[in-house]
Every structure is written in structure tokens, then in C-alpha cells.
């Protein structure tokens, strides 16, 4: 699912720099680590799950709020509201979800979805309020995610979130690959353990190892793992690309596009490869194809499309793509800042 963000190891930072590093990595990680599944489904509630699978997020949010108005400890509705808040750029919506998750836990302290929702949304919201707020929230975010997994150890979403937390949070704040690997190995199903172990390998830039682990994963009906695999394959391919392994990356994304033709991940990755090769026309075609497929809203397609269009000299089209990307408010801080700079260059 989620793009994964790597924080350089062996950091020697001032307290302010540490705060900024923690803010950017933890907040961004949690912001993009929206719920990917509870065992084989995102929700135990079939109605909410159907809306989620159809990506009808406005309806999902509306139904969640209706249910919470009459039952504050409706954990599935809290999870639905949290999911929508995590993919939006609405501070008020995040604050409301935090309050609803806390209200849920007052009545149902063992509700894992409410612990997960509180930890995840709190992380994003604190990040939006600055470094000091983020630093002061780290302990609570970890506790909430850990509690969710303790209550429901079979829930892939909770385990995935905690693995990502440990991977993205620096050691001085209680993170680390060793802790992440331990949580990953504790998964009760082998396909889940392999997917999470691949995530740890990616953090350490062991791309061939990650690819080998991912190739072993057969998610079957487990849509939680299947969704996560999309992002893990993208991260693996982009990592290879960053190491100059263009043909390995191309082969990986071609396979992904062939095996899952209705998903945006394959053509998105191929667009990245073509951009690196300077084949901007081919890149534009791949990104435009990606934008029409499932999962495109979870990828920075417009940002990458704008770069390719800019490379072709299509200033007007590039400007529109960057504006759409910035308007969405979703993406890494570096990508958002770069998009702003490129808009200024375009005039």
C-alpha cells in the first residue's frame, strides 16, 4: 500500500534535526499506511468492506458517521472513518476521528480497530502540527498500534502498521529493523510473514532478497496481503531503479502489469522506468494508463506524469498535472515541494 519511506541509518542529528526527521518519516508512514485488511478483508463488516473495495470513500465515510451517531463504540465504523481521514487532507476530519476513537475505547477498551485508528490518525495529525508535537506523540502512537496487535494478533493491518512504525522511526525513538523483523516473523500466516519480511529487507535496501521473498507470497483470498504486495513490488522495483538496475526493474514491472492488468502499480512502475531512460512519451502513456486503473489514487501518478510531460516540453499539461497533485495534498514532503518548484519554473 503504502509507498515506503527510508530514513538513512547511522544518523547523528541535533535534537531539532531529529525532530524533523521523525516528523517526516513517522507522520508520512502512518498517513499512507491506511487499513489494508483484517485477515482476508479490510472490514469484518461486509457492507463497509464492499464500499471500500469499490473505492466509494465518500459513501463509506457517510455510512460510518451515521452509525457512530447512534453507537459510539462501533469499532468497524471508527475504522471506516479513520481510513477516510487518512487518505484525506482534512485536519478537522482527523481531529473528529481521534475523538471518536477515544470515545470508542472508553466504552470498548479491547476494540483493536479503535486502537489502530487512534494510533494511525494521531500520528498524521501530530505530524501536521510540527516536530515537537510529533515527538511528544510517538510513545502514544506506538502504544496504540501495539495494543491493537496484542488484542488481535491475527490482524494483518495492525501487524503491518507496527512493522512500518519500527522501520521508519529512528533507533533513538524506539525503532529499528530488528524490532520490525521480530514483529514480522510473528505473523500467524506464512504469506503475511513473508510480505512483512520483504518490507524489512526493503528498508535495508536488499532488493534482490525482497524480490525473492515476494515471489514466494501467494495471497490467495487474503486481500490484505494482496493489496500490500502492490506497494511492496513498486518499492522493490523503484529501489532497483535507484541502484541503476533498469532492466531488472523493467522486468519486474512488466510481470506485475501482466499478472494484475487491472491495477495501477504495473504501468506506474513502467512509467518510472521510462522516465529514467529519458523516454518521456512512453512514460506519459504508462502514467495515463495507470491513472485509469484501480489503486491509482494511492500513487503519486500526477506528480510523475507532470515530470514526464515537462520532459516533453508539454508545459500546459505538466502544469495541470502538478496542480492536481498539489490539490490532492497526498504525497511525500519532497514530492510536494518539488512539484511547487516545477510549477514556478513553468511560470
Instruction: Give, in order, the helices and strands.
Output: HHHHHHHHHHHHHHHHHH
CATH architecture of the domain at 1-188: Alpha Horseshoe
Q: What is the CATH homology-level superfamily of the domain at 1-188? A: Tetratricopeptide repeat domain
Query: Helicity, in percent?
Result: over 70%
Shape, per Cα inertia axes: globular
Might you state the CATH topology name of the domain at 1-188? Serine Threonine Protein Phosphatase 5, Tetratricopeptide repeat
The radius of gyration computed from the alpha-carbon positions, rounded to a whole number of angstroms, is 19 Å
CATH class of the domain at 1-188: Mainly Alpha
Strand content: under 5%
Structural class: mainly alpha
Mean pLDDT: 85
Distance between the termini: 34 Å
- Biggest sheet record: none
Q: Stretches where pLDDT falls below 50 for ≥5 residues?
A: 1-40
The beta-strand count equals 0
* SS field, number of helical segments: 18
Characterization of this structure:
The protein has 347 residues and is mainly α. It is built from 18 helices and no strands. Mean pLDDT is 85; it is low at 1-40.
Outline the secondary-structure elements.
Elements (H helix, E strand, L loop, with lengths): L14 H18 L13 H8 L3 H14 L4 H12 L4 H17 L4 H17 L2 H21 L4 H13 L8 H9 L4 H14 L3 H10 L6 H20 L3 H14 L5 H12 L3 H12 L9 H11 L3 H14 L4 H14 L1
Helix pairs in contact: 1-6, 1-7, 1-8, 3-4, 4-5, 4-6, 5-6, 6-7, 7-8, 8-9, 8-10, 9-10, 10-11, 10-12, 11-12, 12-13, 12-14, 13-14, 14-15, 14-16, 15-16, 16-17, 17-18
Amino acid at each position: 500500500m503504502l509507498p515506503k519511506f527510508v530514513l538513512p541509518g547511522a544518523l547523528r542529528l541535533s535534537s531539532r534535526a531529529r525532530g524533523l526527521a521523525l516528523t517526516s518519516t513517522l507522520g508520512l508512514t502512518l498517513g499512507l499506511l491506511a487499513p489494508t485488511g483484517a485477515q482476508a478483508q479490510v472490514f469484518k463488516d461486509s457492507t463497509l468492506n464492499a464500499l471500500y473495495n469499490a473505492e466509494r470513500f465518500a459513501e463509506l465515510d457517510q455510512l460510518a458517521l451515521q452509525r457512530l451517531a447512534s453507537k459510539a463504540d462501533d469499532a468497524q465504523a471508527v475504522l471506516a472513518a479513520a481510513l477516510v481521514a487518512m487518505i484525506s487532507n482534512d485536519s478537522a476530519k482527523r481531529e473528529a476521528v481521534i475523538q471518536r476513537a477515544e470515545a470508542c475505547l472508553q466504552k470498548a477498551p479491547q476494540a483493536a480497530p479503535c486502537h489502530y485508528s487512534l494510533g494511525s490518525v494521531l500520528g498524521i495529525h501530530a505530524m501536521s502540527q510540527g516536530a515537537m508535537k510529533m515527538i511528544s506523540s510517538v510513545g502514544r502512537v506506538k502504544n496504540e498500534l501495539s495494543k491493537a496487535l496484542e488484542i488481535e494478533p491475527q490482524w494483518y493491518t495492525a501487524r503491518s502498521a507496527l512493522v512500518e512504525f519500527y522501520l521508519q522511526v529512528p533507533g533513538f525513538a524506539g525503532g529499528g529493523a530488528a524490532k520490525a523483523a521480530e514483529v514480522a516473523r510473528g505473523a500467524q500466516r506464512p504469506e503475511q510473514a513473508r510480505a512483512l519480511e520483504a518490507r524489512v529487507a526493503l528498508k535495508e535496501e536488499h532488493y534482490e532478497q525482497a524480490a525473492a521473498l515476494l515471489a514466494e507470497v501467494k495471497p490467495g483470498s487474503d486481500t490484505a496481503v494482496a493489496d500490500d504486495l502492490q506497494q511492496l513490488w513498486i518499492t522493490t522495483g523503484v529501489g532497483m531503479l535507484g541502484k541503476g538496475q533498469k532492466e531488472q526493474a523493467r522486468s519486474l514491472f512488466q510481470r506485475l502489469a501482466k499478472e494484475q492488468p487491472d491495477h495501477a502499480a504495473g504501468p506506474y512502475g513502467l512509467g518510472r522506468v521510462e522516465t529514467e531512460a529519458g523516454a518521456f512519451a512512453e512514460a506519459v502513456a504508462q502514467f495515463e494508463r495507470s491513472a485509469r486503473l484501480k489503486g491509482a489514487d494511492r500513487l503519486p501518478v500526477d506528480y510523475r506524469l507532470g515530470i514526464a510531460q515537462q520532459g516533453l516540453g508539454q508545459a500546459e499539461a505538466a502544469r495541470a498535472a502538478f496542480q492536481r497533485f498539489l490539490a490532492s495534498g497526498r504525497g511525500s514532503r519532497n514530492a510536494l515541494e518539488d512539484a511547487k518548484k516545477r510549477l514556478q519554473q513553468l511560470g
